[in-house]
Design brief:
Mean pLDDT: 92
Bound molecules: acetyl coenzyme *A
Oligomer: single chain
Shape: globular
CATH architecture of the largest domain: Orthogonal Bundle
Helix content: 40-55%
Radius of gyration: 24 Å
Strand content: 5-15%
Order of helices and strands: EEEHEEEHHHHHHHHHHHHHHHHHH
Number of helices: 19
Distance between the termini: 61 Å
CATH superfamily of the largest domain: Citrate Synthase, domain 1
Length: 434
């Protein structure tokens, strides 16, 4: 049965269709509202606005559910590999063995980065953040790999190029930043093992692949692979809606992810935990600051726009954190601080009342530290993981018959019309105002 919502504005009634999703979620379709009533809707930060219909990821923030193409993320983390999950997100179904082998061959064939790109790397100032370098280099890929003939080619070849090369480029940026020799990808290694090898292998100290870390990296990347219309994904869709090439759209996603309120939180969490550690473990002081409304400080790794319960990814990450540190037989004081901080916050009335629980970033930094990933590479690790999701969302938007150029409106609250003031009179007018 078709459902409608009735909006009454000054006695005038407007019937607005209700759209229902496959999990029973409902939305009022306001796309015709302005043409019918002259009014727009206002929703700062899009907290209550659906920007598209999507078949990729379902999340329920109240119940802590996350599924990719219908499959719970817990099952994927336990049974799948990152590349199989990437295939699922991008193509809509789990691959057969033959499809997965073909996908792996294509990834291997596209794993090398053009040698000329190394020149670019050498010319960034030494202190450049790896996210800045990655965003710039992904955009630059278009000049090395010009437009392909058809959208199908673009999707098949550009997508595998991106998945494979971004991983190579990330490891390369780390090696170059340390002044070390670049390690090339090896076709005999899996996606995750290859990355760890490119990061840590060196002529003087050959890297021993540790299956536990390969497994941990697979899980880390699966957990980050998609998260529906978050800040960076919406950026990819929005920039992509201007029909810009995929490299530029992904580059915008990387830039958006960098922020500390979004993907940059994993780095911010570890920095916060280190500060607590160096201040002698003053957890209560940090909690008090987070609760103080006159202090802009927030407890990093806590809270989420959608999850109002424990982030399902954080649960898996916490377990993995214990498994990795336990098996490596490594103590990390930051883990002890994180666990104590979590325990105190979860019992605190402020955090309970505000529905603030640990998010995926709370424990992920500790796992990455255990793998030997430097702190300034944490958000790059997130970006590699989110790549399949960005690509899947971009691809869906390109195929969407209802898709439009993204162009929100606004309510203007600036000055009403006033006349231009000649320069010689301006100072008087300005100072009269001051
Ligand atoms: N510490 C303390 N207070 C917080 C926190 C926090 N981490 N997060 C939210 N709050 C409080 C706000 O101060 C506000 O309080 P008030 O209503 O009393 O003024 C209330 O909770 C709601 O905050 P909003 O910013 O409106 O909530 P929103 O849903 O927009 O915020 C966000 C989500 C940005 C993630 C926020 O929780 C935050 O800043 N967290 C810390 C950064 C972080 O961990 N980001 C990673 C998110 S996961 C990801 O992107 C991969």
């Amino acid at each position: 049965m078709r459902e409608n919502a009735t909006l009454i504005i000054n006695d005038q009634r407007y019937e607005l269709p209700i759209v229902t999703g496959s999990e029973g979620e409902k939305a009022i379709d306001i796309s015709q509202l302005r043409s019918k009533s002259g009014l727009i809707t206002l929703d700062t930060g899009f907290a209550n606005t659906g920007s598209c219909k999507s078949t990729i990821t379902f999340m329920d923030g109240e119940q802590g559910i996350l599924r990719y193409r219908g499959i719970p993320v817990e099952q994927l983390a336990e049974k799948s590999s990152f590349m199989e999950t990437a295939y699922l997100l991008i193509n809509g179904n789990l691959p057969t063995q033959k499809q997965l082998t073909r996908f792996s061959v294509m990834l291997n064939d596209n794993s090398l980065v053009h040698e000329d790109m190394q020149q670019f790397y050498q010319n960034f100032p030494r202190a450049s953040h790896p996210m800045l370098i990655l965003a710039a280099m992904v955009n630059a890929l278009r000049s090395f790999y010009p437009e392909l003939q058809t959208l199908e080619e673009e999707i098949n070849i550009t997508v595998t190029r991106l998945l494979s090369k971004v991983r190579t480029m990330a490891a390369m940026s780390y090696k170059i930043s340390r002044g070390h020799k670049v390690v090339y990808p090896r076709p005999d290694l899996s996606y995750c093992a290859n990355f760890l090898n490119m990061m840590f292998d060196s002529p003087v100290n050959p890297y021993q692949i540790d299956e536990l870390l390969v497994d941990a990296l697979n899980i880390f990347w699966i957990l980050h692979a998609d998260h529906e219309q978050n800040c960076s994904t919406s950026s990819v869709r929005m920039v992509g809606s201007g029909r810009v090439n995929l490299y530029a759209a992904i580059s915008s996603g990387i830039a958006a992810l960098w922020g500390p309120l979004h993907g940059g939180a994993n780095q911010a969490v570890v920095e916060m935990l280190k500060t607590i550690d160096s201040d002698g473990g003053n957890i209560q002081g940090v909690i008090a600051r987070a609760k103080d409304r006159s202090d802009p400080f927030r407890l990093m790794g806590f809270g989420h726009r959608v999850y109002k319960t424990y982030d399902p990814r954080a649960k898996i990450m916490k377990k993995m954190c214990h498994r990795v540190l336990g098996r490596l037989n490594r103590q990390d004081p930051l883990l002890d601080i994180a666990m104590e901080l979590e325990e105190i916050a979860l019992k605190d009335a402020y955090f309970i009342d505000h529905n603030l629980y640990p998010n995926v970033d709370f424990y992920s930094g500790i796992v990455l530290r255990a793998m030997g990933i430097p702190t300034n590479m944490f958000t790059v690790m997130f970006a590699i993981g989110r790549l399949p999701g960005w690509i899947a969302q971009w691809k869906e938007s390109m195929d969407d018959p209802e898709w439009k150029l993204a162009r929100p409106r606004q309510i203007y609250i600036g000055p009403t019309q006033k006349d231009y003031v000649p320069m010689n009179l301006r100072e008087n007018t300005n100072s009269a105002k001051n």
